[in-house]
Amino acid sequence: MAAFLALLYIDIRLHSVKSLKAKRAIIRPLRDRLGNGFNISLIEVSEQDSLQNARFLLVGAAGDSGRASSLSESVVHFVERNFPQLDVSFESEIIQV
Description:
- The protein is 37% helix and 37% strand.
- It is of the alpha+beta class and 97 residues long.
- It has one domain (4-96): Alpha-Beta Plaits, CATH 3.30.70.1120.
- A four-stranded antiparallel sheet has the order 2-3-1-4, covered by helices on one side.
- Strand 2 and strand 3 (53-62) form a beta hairpin.
- The protein is elongated, with a radius of gyration of 14 Å.
């Protein structure tokens, strides 16, 4: 029986942020809502020391590739719909394990 992992990188550019506290104030609601709203694991994988950028990796498991792909698409639509003020780009990959 195969399992599939949906990997979704989210890159966020924060053009007007001047402090780490301000960055966290923007990032925390996104991180919290994604973590609570979807059955995924979420981690900030790079850019922790950068004020202008953040990069997250979201991982979700599914029983088939269609569901894994659907999970990634749902997260992308959720972010675009609920956080339109963010300058965001996405990179998605489905892996069979």
